[in-house]
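Weekly sync notes, structure subgroup
Attendees: PM, AL, DS (notes)

Item 1: joint prediction request from the bench team. They want all two components modeled as one assembly rather than separately. Inputs as received:
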Amino acid sequence: MESAIGVLVSQFKAYAGSDGSSDTLSRDEFHRLVSSELPNFVKNASDPTAIEQLMSSLDKNNDGELNFLEFWQLIGHLASEHGGFSQ
Amino acid sequence: MESAIGVLVSQFKAYAGSDGSSDTLSRDEFHRLVSSELPNFVKNASDPTAIEQLMSSLDKNNDGELNFLEFWQLIGHLASEHGGFSQ
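Output from the run, pasted for the record:
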């Protein structure tokens, strides 16, 4: 379990580090991460409009950047759907 | 990334399924999961009192069971610490 958590942290950092703040995902970084890493878990992962809406729904402070815990909320909901848990 | 998420879901289910509700972690299941799967990420993972306090802090509806999203909050904070992100 710790190694799986480590993978998620490393992959977040790899995308977050490509431009601007290395600890947050910009809109471009988020688009790239979703289309490359979550193509099956996110509906319409290749549709820019859908991803834009998803980003806005997660970016609570509306600064155009997702921090790690904002991103973690997304993958928690994806994981919960994937696991078939009731919300 | 999807495979790492799948691992976390599968491991949660493996522990959650050992008694009672198969979708939630009882106190015993949570103790076993933390001591076996998160021995490095959780401080005092083998101390029953510490684990009991951690469980209480996560169990928002105080029913003695952790559902998947309650559990997800814990590993998000562990992952954030592991990754060195500011909170």
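Discussion: Chain B has a mean pLDDT of 92.
Action: AL to compare against the crosslinking data before next sync.
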